[in-house]
Amino acid sequence: MIEKRTAQRHRVFKGGTITFENGGIPCTVRNMSVGGAAIDLDAPVMLPQSFTLSISCDDFVRNCRTVWRRDKRVGLAFVQ
């Protein structure tokens, strides 16, 4: 398998929240890199084109967009 990521990812297991105009959804952050993250949702949910990922225990907040999806796991790219 060829690795396409430009930055190394690190496994994590942290509670997070996806927030957008109409509300928020809890999630579990499974891995992170400088450029993005993979999260697990409790159920398959339709997400808006852009949203915010927050991890309160780390004071971490990033604007994101979805880059891939497999059932309840979602790959995110951090945007400027």
Automatic annotation (TrEMBL):
InterPro entries: PilZ_domain
Bilayer-spanning residue ranges: none
Lineage, highest ranks first: Bacteria, Pseudomonadati, Pseudomonadota, Alphaproteobacteria, Hyphomicrobiales
Domain of life: Bacteria
Name of one Pfam family that matches: PilZ
Domain PilZ: 3-79
Protein name in UniProt: Pilus assembly protein PilZ
GO molecular function: cyclic-di-GMP binding
